[in-house]
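Model: You mentioned two targets. I'll fold them one after the other.
Researcher: Yes, keep them separate.
Model: Target one:
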Amino acid sequence: MSWTGKLLRVDLSTGSITSEALNMEWADKYLGQRGLASKYLAEEIDPKVDPLSPGNKLIMATGPLTGTCASTGGRYSVITKGPLTGAIACSNSGGYFGAELKFAGWDMIIIEGRSEKPVYLSILDDKAELHDASDLWGKSVWDTDAAIKARHQDPMMRISTIGVAGENGVLYACVINDLHRAAGRSGVGTVMGSKNLKAVAVRGTGGVRVKDPARFMEATAAAKKVLADNAVTGKGLPTYGTQVLMNVINEAGALPTRNARDVQFEGAHDISAEAMAEPRGKDHKPNLIANQACFGCTIACGRISQIDKEHFTVVNKPEYWHASGGLEYEAAWALGAATGVNDLDALTYANFICNEQAIDPISFGATLGAAMELYDQGILDEETTGGLQLTFGSAEALVKAVELVGKAEGFGKELGQGSARLCAKYGKPELSMTVKGQEFPAYDPRGIQGMGLTYATANRGACHLRSYTVASEILGIPEKTDPLSVDGKAALVKAFQDATAAFDSSGLCLFTSFAWTLEDVAPQLDAACEGAWTVDKLLEVGERIWNLERQFNLAAGLTGKDDKLPERLVKEAAKTGPAQGLTAGIDKMLPEYYELRGWTADGVPTNETLSRLAL
């Protein structure tokens, strides 16, 4: 129950498409989505494989609660070996695609090999076909979505696709579904492009069965009430979206600014949630048009935004281009504070390009910030950049750069390789704000110490969505801890990591964890799924997933030496704010973390740990 019990295997090299029974023994140990797909990936590929070779596989996976009436049960993930990092990659997305895949009768799709020519995959319930996509190659996400729907005469198809960036090797290309929902990090879209797979289009006419419908309805109703009554999920996120954090994190002195030279941005209010709601321009219309929900969601944190018609970015753009998926906090930070740009319409435009061409705005913005510092130091010049004046704070440079990356043209090709490769090429690797090659997001570890350990140990490279200690250190959820202290943070990070792995594998959105604990999730899973699902079992599943991912990375060639932060964060103290004078205390936290994990001093799971977790 809840699982469909089927997966679709697509071999692009031969064109064969087959149905297989889901391994239910694995489902009991790894749940679904992130966990179960990572198990399949680890079993089926050599961790040392070139991420962009036919030997890598790409898995689109749902969780058991995807497609159900559980609030936020619309999630799916894209799992592969990431080209940006060389580590295991799992990028989670909302919207409607995941639910539609379940309605069509599939828990996951395993895509292997490489097609000789561009193709897309269509799925109508149990009928799956590959189609020539030569005419779609070179088209944007938006144009591809429209073309496939027109071809199948079905405006309700749900489509996940790549843009030009993924076709042309931008290493942080996304997979976008529903026009602006992204499986966003680590280059999962780049892998899709390397396989000559342009899109996956799904239409399902079925539903999702649960084990005990009456008990499931009771459990989901109780859980929805918890979300509605919570200040974050019931008011803050619906009203302001994740952008509610911009001013909060800036005041906490943890907003990485101008490539993390600073921890506070003087232009933070100009690009905040509050600014998005303020009237501006000749017609006095705000940037924010409305909020938007994913499938089955009662939070509705998504933003729909518009650009001022007088703004230089859209003067020559068609009318339909003026509104789309709006800024979320991480994108606003990366496109804004990381580059020193406080022009809200320019940020919105850049975000639209990231949606249109399927680019991770976090890695793009952080890479541009690094390039701006290289330019500021005279290492890059206009001859090198093809005429781009990469000055901190330049809205024009932001706009031109994102357009070039979207097309993978000119200096955009270099920016599209990420900041680690860019800075290494020009002899300044220390200016890359990355862990394992992935740009870290919108929280400076000097001002939020737990996030330093979170970034350093994240299995997919620097990431806030693997252990969001900001909830505790800044928001006091589930209890308040001191953001400037390293004490107790190893245990906090481990607890968040294990719980998050369970959330990610269930089919639920992680944002529910602002209000829910696993005590709210377990009754929903237990009523929906075969087997007995308790909090203890979910914590064990989460820990098993974390260690499985760690094993994959070790086999891929990563070591404990890769669990480190950029030099700037551990050597250059914060200049302003509450954290003034502090650096990131990773040296104290990391040994404590390894010990709590049951790993050796160099970060390898012990035999005892592996045996306990049946790995």
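Model: Target two:
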Amino acid sequence: MGALDESLTKLVGDRTAKVLADSLKLRTVGDLLHHYPRRYVERGSLTSLDELEVDEHVTVLARIEKVTLIPFKGRKGDRLEVVVTDGRSRLSLVFFNQGWRQKELRPGAQGLFAGKVGLFNRTRQLASPDYQLLDEDAGSEAAQQFAGRLIPVYPASAQLPSWKLSLCVQTALDKHLGDVGEPLPAALRDKHDLIPLPEALELIHRPRNQADRERAQSRLRWDEAFVLQVALAMRRAADSALPAVARRARPGGLLDAFDARLPFTLTEGQQKVCGEIFADLASEHPMHRLLQGEVGSGKTLVALRAMLAVVDAGGQAALLAPTEVLAQQHHRSIVEMMGDLAEGGMLGGAEAGTKVALLTGSMGTAARRQTLLEMACGDAGIAIGTHALIEDKVQFQDLGLVVVDEQHRFGVEQRDALRAKGERPPHLLVMTATPIPRTVAMTVFGDLETSVLDQLPAGRSPISTHVVPAVEKPNFLARAWERVREEVGKGHQAYVVCPRIGDEPEDPKKRRKALPDDPEDLGAASDERRPPLSVVETAEMLTKGPLAGLRVEILHGRLTPEAKDEVMRRFTAGQVDVLVATTVIEVGVNVPNSTVMVIMDADRFGVSQLHQLRGRVGRGSAAGLCLLVSDMPAGSSARARLDAVAGTLDGFELSRIDLEQRREGDVLGQAQSGVRSSLKVLSVLDDEDVIATAREEATALVAGDPALERHPELRTALESLLDEDRAEYLEKG
């Protein structure tokens, strides 16, 4: 074990080491050295206070403007109120029964103040914050540390403010900087003009100026990009070395029969992507391909043609869907597209046909047994299902292709459990309906080749999207319900989407509390916002009010599978006018007669999710309409998100906006465990050139040294990246 792998206990003591481990997940010297400052402030350059977000833990550099000691009425104790300013905005600090702090917190003093931003009387406030005054105690160790121009501000915790964490980092630098290895090959560093890693760590923590910081960040970006891309390149190399059965469609077979019945011509994009997939399927090494595309671009059709090609070649295909609603929808639409080609071996079925089986966890025993038999003996060329497909009892005669829909909802163990049912590794096609920026695809799905469908099929109608400000202009909401009635009057159907079902207990952790003015009143403050609207309540309100007389039904995840399937069947058949639902309809649901969608409390959904939801309308010949209802005021960040969605139908553009507005770690963390703790300097949005170049360099290095035998320090860095805590680093889910 190297010095950087040592526990922090020896370096900072038991108590501080425990705080670092519990609150920041920093356990070793190496963890601490790679805990970089979030930002830097210059002495005299105050923090912009009007940008602080409620509930965020912040460290701000500000000047004390006013100090007031207020005794409690009718009892002992007092409250010290301190107002700090950046020259434009103000922030309130409050200390309970700590009047003695008046002696050091004097107007005019400048300092660092750390705490969690709360609201009291609609004013932002830090309650009992930690602080470090920079204008006093000039001889103290902490003050001397800030004598330079740039002051590092670290991601910190309530138990350990930024300046105390900084002292721990300084100790680690002084004692262990010489132990830092060098994962990047010298030739690569020279080629891209990168400084050595020890120098980069010194400069990221102790920059003399902005130029130092930029040089350090440039090197550390490369570390993160390159080590990750080496890991992905090794996985690609290992997967491509596996043997697989080549699957080529036979002339005059099932695929040709299906194509001959298509009532339309494939788009250029569909033809191109199908060509890429068929070339992979014809290889004797397993395909690993990501198929992403715009809402309604025809991904299911492309996947079905791939499955038919595999069936033509004597194999079977399995489509794994994340929910029963989506599995049932896929089964219904694929059987509909294939017609009698999906009735192979049945009376009236096409001679070239096959069976399309559906397997879900809620099936009855007899139906389940029959389906399992058809899959095991090979009668079912195509199997569609949920996690039930992964169970041990499920066997295939010759599984040749696995299609995974909405890959981000599955872990790699689930994907591999299905692939393991093939005698040899089957080909893999991963589909996602969420457009992904190129750099995110290279980072999160970097072990897969990527195909993109960005062309909508002919006949698709445009979708117009509008924000409905329910509070500012209530007549707009009334008009929204009139539009729903108008569309139903034309023979069309509508969706109404709500954030919650309606009978679940509210999660108190999701409620935003205001800070009380007295510690004894903790928990007494009320919410700033009402609870989100629910399916149950909204459906009741609509049937009794603006949509009275229309056929309104509900759909959500807590209904029984049979009930969900029955509601969707009735809606698809046109027997329901308005479907009030949760996001269970977000992907895969295809009812071309639906032309209008109203999304209640739209600000509570993400940008990409809103884009997916509105993709459920405008799927036929009639134009689609999506109305985003919100009570958030104009000018708020939430309204800005809705305006962005209303302003474009380009899912790739929206995915970039989504990434800009959310912390990248959150975005990536949903798709791949470990990235949140690993991407600290690299920006998957801004550093496209670095990521793309690192991918090329990593691929070349792994091709020449597959086991990294000539690069032991790079191998060590890789092992650290993929340690026990991050074992699912490359796993999507």
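Researcher: Noted. Anything on target two?
Model: The chain has three domains: 3-179, 254-453, 463-520+529-648.
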